[in-house]
């Protein structure tokens, strides 16, 4: 999880969470990748949370997609709709 400060002085959290499926799943989009302390098959939920009850921006991708790449993309989507500063 990464914290960023918005220009309005608010704090946002950027996070990625694994959404695992069974290793026997036939879902063609599910991939093997790194989950919390292990490898798993499934997806990752990448999100930016502000003070609201729902994510300010989010994306779901296959488990094998690098989290740092997704963080930049979700951050870019959030930045288009809000004014925020990068972590220092």
Briefly summarize what is shown.
This protein has one helix at residues 67-81; strands spanning 2-5, 11-21, 31-35, 38-49, 57-62.
Topology summary:
Layout: E1 2-5, E2 11-21, E3 31-35, E4 38-49, E5 57-62, H1 67-81
Q: Helices and strands: which structural class?
A: alpha+beta
- The average pLDDT is 76
Q: From the alpha-carbon coordinates, what is the Rg to the nearest angstrom?
A: 14 Å
From the spread of the alpha carbons, the general shape counts as elongated
Measured distance between first and last alpha carbons: 14 Å
Sheet having the most strands: 5 strands, antiparallel
Helix percentage range: 10-25%
What is the number of helices? 1
Strand content: 35-45%
Number of strands: 5
What count of domains describes the coordinates?
Answer: 1
Low-confidence stretches: none
SSE string: EEEEEH
What does it look like?
With 88 residues, this protein is α+β, with helices and mostly antiparallel strands. The chain has one domain. The protein is 17% helix and 43% strand. It contains 1 helix and 5 strands, in the order βββββα. It has one helix at 67-81, and strands spanning 2-5, 11-21, 31-35, 38-49, 57-62. Strands 1, 2, 3, 4 and 5 form a 5-stranded antiparallel beta sheet that branches. A hairpin with a 2-residue loop joins strand 3 and strand 4. The mean pLDDT is 76.
